[in-house]
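In the lab's daily routine, each protein ends up as an entry in a very long ledger. A line of letters takes care of the sequence, but it says nothing directly about the fold. The three-dimensional part falls to structure tokens, numbers that each stand for a local backbone shape. The outcome of that step, for a single protein, is printed below.
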Amino acid sequence: MNLKCLEQLKKALSEKHPQAKLASDFAIPWEMCPAGMDGDITVNCFRFARNFGCAPDVLAQEAADILQNNEDVQAVSKVKAFVNVSLKPQALFRDSIANMDRLMKDAVLPENQRKRILVEYSAPNTNKPQHLGHVRNNVLGMSLVSVMQRAGHQVIPVNLVNDRGIHICKSMLAYKRCGNGITPEQAGKKGDHFVGDFYVLFNKMLSEEIKQLKEARPELADQSSDELFLETEIGQAAQKMLRDWENGDPETVSLWKTMNSWVFKGFQQTYERMGVHFDKTYLESNTYLLGKETVSENLAKGIFSRREDGAVIADLGKLGTKVLLRKDGTSVYITQDIGTTLLKHKEHNPDVMIWVVGDEQILHFQMLFTILKKMGCPWADSLYHLSYGMVNLPSGKMKSREGTVVDADDLFDEMHELAKKATLERLGDTAEIPEDLEKRSEIIGMGALKFMLLKFNPKTTIMFDPQASLKFEGDTGPYVQYVCARINSIARKAQERGIDAAPEKVDWSLLDSPEEKEIAVMALRYQTALRSSAEKMDCSVLVAYLLDLAKCFNRFYREKQVLNAEDENVRTARLALCFAVRDILSDGLRALTIQIPEAM
């Protein structure tokens, strides 16, 4: 959705410069007028002067002269290559929130720009519950999927669960030795937490053995735990269990299936609480051998080579060499990823594949994508690793082996209780406790968590403070949710007073204050913010926009009466303005997978 006066400006400039080279979808770019300057919007001619083949300052003067005579324009001022434009209220609102259906539809990309996109995220291990790191992964993944869908793309969310390997056997061995056949239900625990306790127990037992080993053999004092793993009895037992699993030992496989089922049930409860959904979940136990045949085929073609010790390697140029098959013929992790990627492409045929994985795996994905290019996959250039930084709490870093991680479920419970406390404090001692307090607290708490994790560019390492994220004032989720709740309250009061909240006609020319016009200009930016978030794979762009719009509304609400406006027609127009803000904020929050409470 664009301003009519700028469409007319483009046409006039094109006629003045017939040699201009403009793309079919070219539109005159504009920005919000900077604070302290007179105008509603600013046209920066530096950004497009070359399209018309003239100097920015010259083009700015031409633009100012043209706009000065436009029927929609109130005033124009030129500052170097910048043109500040004040619009007549009726024109500004006509081209923005007076047509909310069009404004919302314009956030969707044209059909020829829409793509089929596969997004893989979450990727937990079945030896422990999901923790704060997984929460950021899930929030980034699910919100990216949702924003891309809102922008018009066809998006396929998938999960790849690491349910095999030595780390899984650690939990299994500890349970086999110390579990006494107890189930999560008997222990009164979620299945993933229950299994995670045995992973921690294994590492405590391993640490004790290593300590005793170093005391008995001082020459091993400088060796790491990983280096001494197979020197311990418990490490050897875990390795044997892995071999037994790979060889299909019935007892080992049965235990593996049982413990995995406990974890999957726990994972599902966590996913449901977050609103996470996958079209398909791949299991590494089903896919880890897929790449071996592919590697062997490409070895025969000469794309890969065999090292002197028998290992199969890929020469990746500046990235170095990568072992794809060990000398004993067993596969490594990247071999599995090769096979799984080929399988995903075969099953879904996406235009783009995205992996949401922490930045510690940047080199891994660079190698994976380079290998697929060497193999001649024509779609290898459409693969993207959305890397993200760590997330920490004020209490410090997390370590799974030591059991010091912040479990996702515990964090959700904390956010719920903090939200409940904040809600009760706002209601005051004399207020009646609402019947939906628990539901309201869950929506506010989970919204605060998601909003804060999305507020930063994914690549940023962040410090997450639960209490700060729940403040009703500031750059938080509850701040934006509260604007929606406040407008809901205005709507209820209007209904109670018998005021028509959905009139057929609104006189937008009555909304001529800077605060009212600023909201209309902000509304026009919604399309750009949403599309940009999808294109950049960065939901912080949309988060920043929603915060800006919420702040605009609060400035308006402080300065202007709505239900008690001095004139009925002004009241009608301001009500329509409020509802437009609510619709945009609600749509944006939903795109970020954040719910809105009816009241706060």
Remarks:
- Residues 397-403 have pLDDT under 50 and may be disordered.
- The two ends are 33 Å apart (CA to CA).
- The first strand starts at residue 31 and ends at 32.
